[in-house]
Amino acid sequence: MAAASDGAGQGMVYTSQEIQDQVRCFVQGSTYKSKVSCEELAKSALFLLRTLPSARHAVLEHLCTVFDESVNTHVLQIELGSTISSTAMPNLDSVIQDSSGFLMSFIKINPGAWAPIISSWSINLLGHISSKYAERRGALHASGFNELLQMWMTCTATKTLIDLASECFASLIGSSPDVCVDALLEASVKYSPHFDWVVAHLGSCFPQTIITRVLMCGLKDFCYHGSSQSDAAISSVQNIPKMASVVGILGHLAGQHGQDIRKALLALFRDSLRPDAERLQQSTTPFLLHLASMSSMLLHVLTTDFVHTLTPDILNKLAYQFVQQKSPSLQDSKSLLSLVVHLITKSGEGAYRVIQFLLDVTDLNCEKELVPEVRATCAIILDTLVLDLQRIVHRRCADPSTELPILQALQSNALKLCTNLVTHGDTRQKRLTKLLCYVAIYSGESCASDILAHVLIHSREINELSAFVQMTTELETRYPDILPTTVGVAINKLQQFNMLDGGMMLKGLLNVVQWERNSVHQDSKDKISVSRCLQDHIPAIATQLSHSDPITCLAAIQLLAEIRMHKMSTSNVTRICGAFVTFFFKVLKSKDAVYVASALSCCREVVKQLTRSPTASNTLLRFLMEGATAEENAVLLGGREQLSGLSTSDINQLEPALLNANREHSVSLALPRAHSSVFHAGIIGQGLKTRAVGLLLTKEKELANKQAFLGLVWICCCGNAQSQNPSVLQKDGNEPFAGTIHNIRLLPAALNYLAKCLVELTAPDVVYNALHWPEEEFMKVTIERDLQIKKTFDSNPVLWDVMDLISTGPSSLCFCSCIIRGIMATLIAYWDSSRDKMARNSPKQLEASCRLLDCMAKDNPPIPDTEDIQIARDCDVKYTQTIRAVLHSNIDSQGQHYARFFSAEPHQPQPQ
Amino acid sequence: MDNLRLHYLQQLDFPECTKVGLQHIEEYLSQGSQRSGGGGRIPGLGGSTSDNPAQQIAQEFVFFHTSRRPYHQRLSAIQELQVLEILCNHFHEQRDSKKAMALFDVLFGNAGQLEVLCRLVSMGVAVQCKSLLYCAAIWMELQGCTSPNPTKLCKMLVDDYCLLVPSATSVLCGLPHISRRFTCNFMTSVTSLYPFSGDQCPPYALVEMITEWINKDPGLGLVSLTPADKSVIQKTQGRYGQVAQPWLSKVQTPIPGLAHWCIVAPLTQEAIRAKLDNRHGETAMETEHTNNTESKNLQIYSKLNVGIIQTMVSVNPEQSKIYLAMQDMFLLVKTVTGLIQQIANPTENDSVQTALDRLGQFFQVAKGTGGLQCDKGDLSRMCQSLPSNRFLEILQQQNEAS
């Protein structure tokens, strides 16, 4: 250091002879012609540096060997441990320190002149040393980047060099940073990868400048090479050596200075869009794209940060820039576009945003003011992208190891894309559909079915439906079982989802099913259709009938009406029927006539479907009957509230809220630890629940309700032998049909079941219901029960109609003989005790009597060849004596009826 | 015989072969002069470079630029220094300026090795090699001092001694002691190197040095007016052909260039000051610093002006040569006018007046000492575009009166 200050001092004049001597000494020493000691040599070298400017190249070259030797010693020491005698070291170290002191002082005194010389010298030397000792070091332990850095920083020589270099950088950075960065880049090209630590170190000393400058240098280089080989393809761009080292340097700095890089890139981009941008800056965009193609880190920045900046204004500017650039040859722009597409396929995290952006831009409906060229270009990019993806995805089937980052990234955003598809309508549908298809194919069947299910559930318009159909067709080529899976997923979602979405989801399903019904493909039986898949999920759909939202319920019933039901397990049948009946009565309560009408027509369809199986029709009958007689529903069908003296209020409060609450639980799946049922006796603070009484319905409404109810019952009784299904009719043709209503015969079995139901619901206790005449003694204790039966009929007048229906069957009325007996007994008792002159004075009793007689009349005389009737006829002789006597006395007029009551062979068994 | 010689040289190791090679070249040249003295050679057809064995040796054993010896690819910087040392020594020992010039011509005549030449001259300055610098001076004159190659040489010297190693400036200061002719040509070149346009001011150290030279030795600027010994350049005639005797057609002296510096300097100073004034927020220290350099500059340029006037006065009127053309004068006036236009209110500006005073002085002295030939109307034409100046007006009046 003392020597350094000497050197800087002015006024030291040396004679020419001295200089000549030193030159001789230096030359001889450095060429090993004669033995000159290390210190001597160093002294003369530094002397020459101060006095003989033209010798500086030689001096610097000599210093190279000095540094090299020092590094060699250092490496040797590491290799052999510290066993090597360190006698040579202090000399070298002091030489290095002296010379670096000199050079430092030169840089300080005149940075403009010295810094470029010393920086390029030190950088080259560093490159040389690091690549020279790379092999040696390779045998050692310094494998990692950081270890390498540490190793070189502990070496005096390299540390001095890098200090010198950073000193030069520091002094040049203000005035002409290009000089040093250029040198750095060139060295990086030449000595990569051993040189990386230098770049990293210098870069982290001056991150901002280095990043900006490195980018600028890269851009210049790109422009230069780009213009000289304008018609060459992308591959040649990657051959530009500096690009690689630019990418390498940025890669090193990315870890710690990612934000700086980001900013620098953005600034570069922004500058290029200024109106006064130069020719050089105008090729920024292609440059950035090429950079991105070489580094995933930069690509990431491009796809995540840059997309935000691409406002319509900037896009227009970009377009203008490209137009303005002197006629970029067609091939050139083509290769640029294909590069963009390539980059998009490589993009990871930001892929969704990029796609979203492209879709936004190409969407003609969006209100942004865009130049048509921009739109067209984006459309081309998107289309090419879609084509490329198609090719890659289908090729990937053969080789599943191919990675496709864009699809990987889109996979997690697939549902968002789906929503996009649904919300934006047809403008972007075509491309999105394809894109989603490829995402689905790429990411496996389960994801594919998720995507499809999403589209299916959300499809409301015909467009979305078509998207679904397109996607299904495309995906079925890859996953043949996709449709059942999809439907399964959709149904699962239905049960998970919040209450509100259910209706929409069901509507989506309904659309598809309706389309399938109307479409030509319906006939092809091989094809798996959604409605066929839905057959497995009928119970799940049926549970939606208990939904609190009427629209959801309507959608559910509509959907059910569309599905052809096939055999189901009893538990499922029970569930479906239960839900259905609850729904039915809920519909009857509704005041919205349109809603009621459409719901009821669907209900009829559903019942038709359900009654294909006898089990279902029986269950349904039972539930219907139970429902009709339930207290809360009786009013709907013309029943009179039994308990009086209660306040009137809204009809909705009539139903027991607790039951409703529990029913709603069945809509969604029961989760572990969640409530599966609700128990409460009211809301705290409101006291006991007040019992409410429904307002009275109009006669017309009552009648309509009754009609609806009976209609369903009637359909149930028709069974599957309906006129629409002639084959079934044919099969059951030889079965004896009882009564006919509108030329459609009802199934006796169903009527029998109905009759049994009626008995069960009306008879309060175990009642004798055999066909044989009961014991005399038994009859005496039935008065109370008879009254009970009569009362039930009074409060549920619809039961009369049911009995009417039953009476159309050949012998079904027999099964409710106890009811007939009971009512009859009550009525007879009444008439016996009645003192009214006119029967008309007690109209209720009169009407009841008439109806009872009507019913009985229909079934009389019973058709002789049924077993039950046979048995019925064999009643005790003492009861038939009167009739026999009456017939005998009027045999002339009533003779033809005799055979109906008394057979010639009383105990003839019925052949099976 | 030539081949034998080459073969022999090829057997030698590096420093030796260069030394011996130089001797061979000299030998050959002396033989050649005898031969040409015998009338065997036609001047101007001295054979192309590749045929010439001297050239061949120079290329192969001095510069090591040859395709024939791949193992001697390029010299390292240290080896180059060695070569420079050998060359320096050789020139140092060569007392015969004719022979030296001939050798110099062989080595650097076709300007192919400009870089080496620059370094050699730079070293020659440091080791005070008189004959080398003399040869370089002649070379510069032959090339034309303001032409690119000599300018490059001078730039290198300025860089080396004024910018890179300020501690070695004193070495350059002694240049007139080594070779006056080279110093003179150096000045000529340097003035064209820094034309004072824009911010391109010559380094202060350089101006200071030149001022000192001129003031100490007024005749220094006129050295190039004396033609060099004809016998020295005789050898090179063949190469340079018609351009070989520049001083017959046009003599280049540093006087116009230096005068240009002195006249333009105050105006440039003014422009820089105006620029600084526009830039606000300067610290007091900076202002002081600029003021200091300004006054220093003003001082040095007026000193230089005196030196130039003295130089011009010292011309012996009997052997006076025309060193200034009216064309140069008009060019100078044009530059001055351009600079003045940038200055507001020029008639009352001291710097402008100083510049115009110096212009008038320069014109008057040059005319008076016979360095400038001009018509009667030239002066008034010159003054047309310039703002009013008392000195110039007096001159004009005188001019009209005479």
Would you write up a description of this structure?
The complex is a heterodimer of chains A (912) and B (402). Chain A has 912 residues and is mainly α. In chain A, a hairpin with a 2-residue loop joins strand 3 (740-741) and strand 4. In chain A, helix 42 runs parallel beside helix 44 and helix 46 (877-889) runs antiparallel to helix 47 (891-901). Chain A starts with a helix and ends in an 11-residue tail after the last helix. With 402 residues, chain B is an all-alpha fold. Chain B is built from 21 helices and no strands. The longest helix of chain B is centred in the last third of the chain and has 30 residues, at 284-313. The chains are: A mainly alpha (912), B mainly alpha (402). The A-B interface holds A 7-14, 16, 19-20, 23-24, 26-27, 30-31, 49-58, 60-62, 106, 109-110, 112-114, 117 and B 76-82, 84-85, 88, 118-120, 122-123, 126-128, 159-161, 163-171.
Defining traits:
A: about 900 residues; mainly alpha; two-stranded parallel sheet; two-stranded antiparallel ribbon; 47 helices; about 70% helix; rod-shaped; B: about 400 residues
